[in-house]
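User: Okay, second chain of the day. Same drill as before: sequence in, structure tokens out.
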Amino acid sequence: MDQKKVGKCGLYCGACPFYLATASPEVKEYLTEKWGKWEEAWYCKGCGDLDEKSWCFGCKMLSCLEEKGLTHCSECVEEHCEEVEEFDNDDCLHHKTARSNRERVKNMGCQAWLEEEIKHWACSNSGSPFMWYSENCYKCGNKVEGLKK
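Assistant: Same drill. Structure tokens below.
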């Protein structure tokens, strides 16, 4: 299983523009043109392969998981976690998917969830991944509904 795409918080890293651009020069070029710039701080290889340059390096949720010896927030038995609550309820629309994703990982297992997410976030025409908030496939222009969950 490609753990790099499994966000420890419950996000699917495979839909993250920073993750996709770090992995693909084609996506990076597309986003650079679309956004008019590219910042080196937008580098990320996903939660399964964080290093000190990564966008999510230093995440409090990741530190908490390390302290508890867990690999994913879905494994935690705490009823109320301040870090998770803050993350789930901030102003980032894609963070709203994390809660249901954690429940799905818990109920169906990480591998099945990941396989489902890979299919869910792929363009039916080109097979290319969609990014959070996308309106069109970067490769073929196929219309998508942006944040699809």
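The chain is about 40% helix and 0% strand.

User: Thanks, on to the next one.
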